[in-house]
Amino acid sequence: MSTRPALPQQPCFGPSVPFFMFATGIESSIPTVNGRRVDQMAASGHTRRWAEDFSLVKELGCGFLRYGPPLHTTWLGEGRYDWTFADETLAALREQGTYPIVDLCHFGVPDWLGNFQNPDFPRLFAGYAEAFARRFPWVQLYTPVNEMYVCALFSGRYGWWNEQLSSELGFVTAMKHLVGANLAAMRAILTVRADAIFIQSESTEQYHAASPAAWAEARHRNAERFLSLDLNYGHAVDAPMYEYLMDNGMTRQEYAAFRSTDLKRHCVLGTDYYQTNEHLVLDDGSTRASGEVYGYATIIQQYYSRYHLPLMHTETNLVDAPESDSTDWLWKQWANLLLLWETPIPVLGFTWYSLTDQIDWDRALREHSGHVHPVGLYDLDRKPRRVGKAFKRLIEQWSEVLPARSLCLRLPLAPLHPAQER
Hints:
It contains 15 helices and 19 strands. It is of the alpha/beta class. The radius of gyration is 20 Å and the shape is globular.
């Protein structure tokens, strides 16, 4: 019988909880596009129907929910917060026994902060993260900044969101501020909760060269896809990537600070994979979606060999349509996870994202048309989709079968005495 490596040592102030983390999430993107705020929680109806949504999570059998209060309405200014919505919703999750993986920053910042080119963002965000941790000391699982790589691409290079820049300087600046904020938030949270666990939800990408002429660009892109995690975990980049960073706004002192980070031992590598995560690089350097070529299990082994952290599949979905059966995609992603169980790679959990359908995500939120993107476990009337029923069956069938990984979580979730809350 093969043995599997133990998880990195975590400070633990409660019993070890051996179970597989089945999860879903509430889509909470809040970028600005041409000065207009995109609020996916509001668009899906969650801000009005959150109690109903939480009951669906429990009905599914999901023990974990990727969730966080909308940053732009909660963080009013430096040291100023409106916790009304967070108090109500997080208390409800706690009461029903659902572990939140708290998503603090999801593709946008409040208007008063500007955008991801603001060099004060890391320092200020650390203050928000610490305030959140003090307000909700029972929360243990966090994703401080969601998909840092994607956010930097869309905001700094593609010109789609937030600062809407189309330059390498814009991309590198957004990247160093996003990663810097993620690190600063982790340090701040740890001052409050020493056993906090950070599940980085990051997009896993693969670039394929269409011809020898595209080979060099594909190699650069395949190095660049690791950039946010390299900086986050203090992993050395290769020489060409170092030169690229130095040529586009990062200083040697900034890079040295990223290299000296010591927070990796508190982390789980959360990995997101969609049908659009693999790309074909063309001769002119442009890219287009290639569809699934390698698949999740093959690509994720590259990430694991680089970082050697326990993994969680933190996002996937597929449109529920006659020409694309989302239940087949669910089964395929699950099969990829089972394949990883045959390797030494520690896999902690699996997520279908999101609970309900989304709005305008098929247009990357760039157009405000109100188009329903049918990728949820439930539609916007809160009726289960085929994939929702299939996911519920999967959880029922496999939750007691998989050999569990021990994740050090503090139990019980029951409310503290009021005097202990603040």
